[in-house]
Design a protein that fits this description.
single chain, alpha/beta, Aminopeptidase, 8-stranded mixed sheet, binds 2-acetamido-2-deoxy-beta-D-glucopyranose, binds zinc ion, signal
């Protein structure tokens, strides 16, 4: 009896979870000029639309529309001449399906044996705790390759741990460092697979030894742990961190969306053009915080960059989705090495295109402010500004067939990890060769 009751309670908890998204919809949309782009941004503030993906040269954008704003949004989009098409009628139903798939996958238990040398199979998205345990296990079982480092704590006090992967314990300063992080935006679950796949291919099943003989790696699988836990437990579409101690004017609240008045967009919080193209409204999805590096999570990234900036040659901030390789600056101002950033961006994009699923679009390479929209305080911009020559934001593939797009199609996690790593390897090998040439000249 007790067991039956427990199961029942669990099930009802799961189904009650996405109540807030009952009746919400997704619209796919296209913009034809900058005025339309600005108009969609305006609607984001006015109606509480949530832009998941911005339309670009190769594909349309996607927006989440609150239930009681659907008609108004449709009306206004039509008036502005913006083409759109509802794709998901009830987002909650999609989320329930995702939960059922995830619950079934979780029953395939992974080894909890601390001595296991196995990788986590990429057949599901793991919880924050599971990834933490995995990292502890790797550091213990591969002591000659892996060091677990505590980079600091999140706002809610979770440790932000990351891996240093090196065949020389980070002692050989003639090697370049590749630094990558995932899940800065917590709802972008596919990016976890990119980090786990890379860790597997560098540590557990390393079939290309040059990658660790010639290069040191820093991998932060969960750059925003509080947001990530919140996206599992409460709000699947949570993007920001969970800072909840900033005062705001009640006029800022979009009616019905008071839950959004928490958190800082970590990808707008870095000390580079801070606050020039981001929101000063606490309730906005791109709220930049109260000061540059006001957030403990971005301070972790800053410390890693400061500690290793002489050797970090490639920085990759992994987001989803859209099939983009984007480079600084978000303000649309090109840095002096823009041509090389573009060239190496094409290497990365082409390497992914070569193995991607045929129904997905090719990657688009470009300056983020020019290709998409202007934004400031981004992680890639900051990395470049402190001297990392090759700094990118990857927007991973938008897998067709998963209607809500952030929703994870488990069958494609492995593919997502695999194709992304093809791009990462292309970039890593370029910077390795380039770094050697520069050293030789010195
Ligand atoms: C190890 O990596 C190789 C090459 O990527 C792959 O073909 C093979 O399936 C992997 N083995 C395991 C056990 O994952
Ligand atoms: C994608 O790139 C490949 C290789 O460059 C090219 O042959 C193909 O036409 C491209 N596809 C699209 C839809 O642009
Ligand atoms: Zn993102």
């Amino acid at each position: 009896m007790f067991r039956v009751l427990t199961v029942f309670l669990l099930v009802s908890v799961v189904y009650a979870k996405h109540e807030i998204y009952e009746g919400w919809s997704n619209y796919e949309f296209e913009v034809e000029n900058e005025a339309q782009t600005k108009y969609v941004f305006m609607l984001e503030d006015q109606l509480g639309l949530d832009i998941w993906s911005h339309p670009g040269p190769s594909h349309s954008g996607m927006v989440l529309v609150p239930k009681d704003k659907k008609e108004e949004a449709a009306h206004k989009l039509r008036l502005a001449g913006i083409k759109f098409r509802p794709t998901v009628d009830n987002v909650k139903e999609q989320l329930d399906i995702e939960d059922r798939i995830m619950a079934a996958a979780s029953r395939r238990t992974v080894s909890s044996d601390i001595t296991s040398k196995a990788a986590l199979p990429l057949d599901r998205v793991y919880t924050w705790e599971e990834v933490e345990d995995y990292m502890v296990r790797l550091a213990r079982n591969y002591p000659d390759k892996v060091t677990l480092v505590n980079g600091g704590s999140s706002f809610e006090g979770r440790p932000i741990n990351y891996l240093r992967i090196s065949s020389t314990n980070f002692q050989d300063t003639s090697k370049p460092v590749v630094f990558m992080q995932s899940l800065l935006h917590s709802r972008e679950w596919l990016t976890q697979a990119a980090a786990l796949y890379a860790i597997d291919k560098l540590v557990v099943n390393n079939t290309e030894s040059d990658l660790i003989n010639d290069i040191d790696w820093i991998i932060v699988p969960t750059a925003n742990p509080d947001g990530f836990v919140y996206s599992h437990e409460t709000d699947r579409w949570w993007r920001k961190n969970r800072r909840d101690d900033i005062e705001f004017d009640s006029e800022e609240i979009i009616p019905g969306l008071e839950d959004w008045c928490v958190g800082v967009d970590l990808n707008r919080n870095h000390d580079v053009d801070w606050a020039s193209f981001s929101s000063n409204k606490v309730c906005a999805g791109d709220f930049h915080g109260t000061a540059p590096f006001s957030e403990p999570e971005t301070s972790v990234t800053k410390r890693i960059l400061d500690e290793h900036k002489d050797r970090i040659e490639l920085f990759l901030d992994i987001h989803s989705y859209g099939s983009y390789v984007l480079y600084p600056y978000g303000t649309a101002i090109l840095p002096p090495n823009a041509l090389m950033l573009h060239r190496v961006g094409i290497l990365i994009g082409n390497a992914i295109d070569a193995v991607k699923l045929p129904e997905n679009p090719n990657y688009t390479v470009g300056n983020s402010g020019l290709v998409l929209y202007r934004a400031s305080g981004g992680t890639d911009d900051y990395a470049l500004s402190v001297g990392v020559p090759y700094a990118y934001t990857l927007e991973l593939t938008q897998f067709r067939g998963s209607n809500t797009r952030f929703s994870v199609n488990l069958a494609l996690l492995e593919q997502g990890g695999y194709e992304t790593f093809e791009g990462i390897k292309a970039g890593a090998r370029f910077v390795r060769d380039n770094y050697r040439m520069r050293k030789d000249r010195q």
